[in-house]
């Protein structure tokens, strides 16, 4: 346990060094909920993300996403389709925002390499952005979940490391405003299972586009609920 706490402290101390200026460090505060119907493959997904250009201020995005999920009985795959509402701000003193409506479809595939859990997420998005033409986007994410003190991440009291890399590719032909490559997100974090259906994570994400690279502190809560019937 002492080694795990030391690792957590090391991550917290290392986060500010990723940003040359403390004002360059942003933050994402996230809640992910999954409501499972007992003895049914169906579930309702919901999430809320508040992103800021700085740790405690300057709105970057408010993202609300929900969808209907189908899970294979084996647990090796799930499929989700849904809707997202995104309000985005601009960095600095301006308080102007713009809105995006988004529909998405995704497939999640899971596998094990020894104790390490691998997850592949494939997502396709259709985007209606205020004052812009209709756009689409492809996303692929590879997650690695590494248990630290237990065999399964679902066990209460489990500590784990999570790392992922996600690449975004635009679906339109490149023009003055759009290129094929949209962005990349690289993440490393430490998680703790509070109880069977609740986990928390703290980590750091580096988001890179063709023009900028920005560090983001991430704090996330992951909540799975089951119906009683």
UniProtKB/TrEMBL annotation:
InterPro entries linked: DUF2490
Q: Keywords of this protein's UniProt record, alphabetized?
A: Signal
- Where does the signal peptide begin and end? 1-19
Q: Any keyword Signal?
A: yes
> What is this protein called in UniProt?
Uncharacterized protein DUF2490
Organism ancestry = Bacteria, Pseudomonadati, Bacteroidota, Cytophagia, Cytophagales
């Amino acid at each position: 346990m002492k080694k795990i706490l030391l690792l957590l402290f090391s991550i917290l101390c290392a986060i500010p060094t990723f940003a040359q200026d403390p004002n360059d460090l942003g933050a994402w505060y996230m809640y992910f909920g999954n409501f499972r119907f007992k003895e049914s493959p169906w579930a309702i997904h919901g999430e809320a993300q508040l992103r800021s250009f700085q740790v405690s201020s300057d709105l970057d995005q408010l993202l609300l996403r929900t969808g209907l999920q189908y899970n294979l009985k084996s647990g090796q795959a799930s499929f989700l389709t849904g809707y997202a509402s995104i309000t985005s701000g601009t960095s600095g003193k301006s308080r102007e925002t713009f809105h995006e409506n988004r529909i998405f479809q995704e497939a999640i595939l899971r596998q094990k390499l020894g104790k390490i859990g691998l997850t592949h997420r494939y997502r396709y998005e259709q985007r209606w952005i205020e004052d812009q033409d209709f756009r689409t986007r492809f996303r692929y994410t590879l997650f690695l979940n590494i248990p630290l003190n237990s065999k399964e991440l679902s066990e209460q009291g489990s500590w784990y490391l999570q790392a992922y890399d996600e690449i975004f590719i635009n679906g339109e032909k490149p023009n003055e405003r759009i290129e094929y490559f949209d962005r990349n997100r690289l993440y490393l974090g430490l998680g703790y299972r509070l109880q069977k259906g609740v986990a928390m994570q703290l980590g750091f994400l580096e988001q890179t586009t063709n023009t900028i690279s920005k560090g983001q502190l991430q704090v996330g809560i992951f909540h799975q609920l089951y119906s009683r019937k």
